[in-house]
Design a protein that fits this description.
The protein is α+β, with helices and mostly antiparallel strands. The protein folds into 2 domains: 132 residues, Immunoglobulins (Immunoglobulin-like); 168 residues. The protein contains 8 helices and 9 strands. The strands form 2 sheets. A 6-stranded mixed beta sheet has the order 1-9-8-3-4-5. α2 packs parallel to α5, α2 packs parallel to α7 and α4 runs antiparallel to α6. The radius of gyration is 35 Å and the shape is rod-shaped.
């Protein structure tokens, strides 16, 4: 084996002299969160022998060797650090023609300076590439803002509805407490969701944040029904239409959420925003409807005492 190594060294001296290997300069590359693998480039432009048996390749991270290829050994010897078990050449067949680029699993890829050192016979060259973590937003900043605003407005409109119904109409204390607790659940979920959703990136925390913004909105659908039944003994057809429309808005928002979570990078913010906007629109219409129609409905209802007194008189006459 040593004789083979000496032979390649001598052949390299005769064929290529002592010139150094030239490697392309790449500066830095970004690690995309959506890709399962990371390619760190290393390309030699002036190989002469084009034979892996005359090549030796070493990869280092911050000065620490984690991958090596020894073509002088037969069979070929490849060593990997235990931290980089996924490390492999992008194409072993292209190695003798200068492509020594390395593929790493995204989970194992660590941001830092990666050095590629290539030796062909008696010539060698080295290049350094900085791997950076790409910082990307879940959606566009405007889309992020609209998602947060529409859900915050939904919570605000709900609390406004509770205030109007509680002050203008006669509802039981138990129902008031139930409505307040439900509203607190939605509000807390929205606040926590916004905190997790706002930071850049689309990691699992961002997904949880978007889920906490969108999914708890389902509570607003039955709550609207409870509020309407507190105003009208039997909700009119228009009130039923509002309930259906609000449920439809929620379905649209959840559909957008599901499509966004399954796509990388997410591309369906408009669907989420549209669904939440429908929920907000229905909330505004319902609030106006309760204030105007509900108040008129209440004014035209006979007072409870006025109805109860004739009944009590009638009962007294029958007893006599």
């Amino acid at each position: 084996m040593d004789a083979l190594r000496v032979w390649w060294v001598l052949l390299g001296i005769l064929g290529a002299g002592s010139a150094q290997l030239q490697l392309q300069k790449f500066g830095s590359i970004l690690m995309d969160t959506c890709n399962s693998t990371v390619i760190i480039p290393c390309i030699v432009t002036n190989l002469q022998l084009n034979d892996t048996r005359a090549m030796y390749v070493k990869w280092r991270l911050g000065g620490n060797e984690f991958f090596s290829f020894d073509g002088f050994e037969q069979p070929v010897k490849i060593q990997r650090n235990s931290t980089f078990q996924s490390a492999e050449f992008v194409s072993l067949s292209k190695l003798p023609f200068g492509t020594a680029s390395l593929s790493l699993s995204r989970k194992e890829a660590i941001p830092g300076n990666y050095s590629c050192e290539v030796t062909e016979s008696n010539r060698e060259g080295i290049s350094t590439v900085e791997l950076k973590q790409a910082i990307e937003s879940w959606f566009e900043p405007v889309e992020n803002t609209l998602i947060i605003i529409t859900m915050v407005l939904a919570a605000i409109f709900y609390w406004t509805q509770i205030g109007v119904v509680a002050t203008k109409f006669d509802i039981s204390l138990l129902k008031k407490i139930s409505l307040i607790i439900a509203g607190l659940i939605v509000t807390i979920a929205v606040v926590i969701g916004c905190v997790l959703f706002v930071p850049d990136g689309f990691e699992s925390s961002n997904q949880v944040g978007l889920g906490l913004i969108v999914l708890p909105a389902v509570i607003l659908v039955p709550l609207l029904y409870i509020l309407l039944t507190s105003v009208f003994e039997k909700p009119p057809c228009f009130a039923v239409m509002l309930l259906v429309l609000k449920a439809l808005g929620y379905v649209i928002a959840v559909t957008g959420f599901a499509m966004s979570v399954s796509a990388c990078p997410p591309q369906h913010a408009a669907v989420v925003i549209a669904g939440l906007a429908v929920i907000d629109l229905v909330a505004v219409i319902a609030l106006v409807y309760v204030i105007i129609i509900g108040s008129n409905f209440k004014d035209h209802q006979p007072p409870r005492k006025a109805v109860e007194e004739p009944l009590n008189d009638a009962k007294g006459v029958m007893l006599e």
